[in-house]
């Protein structure tokens, strides 16, 4: 494969992955207020919070209540 083609393919895939992750985070922050400002926590706790919120987003659909999210974040 030509190097220019390989670079173009890599850049396309990188751009697509970035776009997808930005869209996911935008959807999460639209649903959960806690993500609209900086999380002043250790990186490991932030990873856990993001994973929990992503799962809540998928499982609960539109019916997630803010109290549930606040409870989970406080328990970490």
UniProtKB/TrEMBL annotation:
Pfam families: DDE_Tnp_4 (PF13359). InterPro entries: HARBI1_dom. Keywords: Metal-binding. One of its GO terms (molecular function) is metal ion binding. Its cofactor is a divalent metal cation. Residues 6-56 form the DDE Tnp4 domain. It comes from the Eukaryota. This is DDE Tnp4 domain-containing protein.
């Amino acid at each position: 494969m030509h190097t220019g083609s390989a670079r173009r393919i890599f850049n396309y895939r990188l751009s697509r992955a970035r776009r997808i992750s930005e869209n996911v985070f935008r959807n999460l922050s639209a649903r959960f207020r806690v993500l609209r400002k900086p999380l002043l926590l250790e990186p490991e706790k932030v990873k856990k919070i993001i994973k929990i919120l992503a799962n809540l987003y998928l499982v609960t659909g539109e019916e997630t209540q803010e109290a549930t999210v606040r409870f989970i974040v406080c328990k970490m």
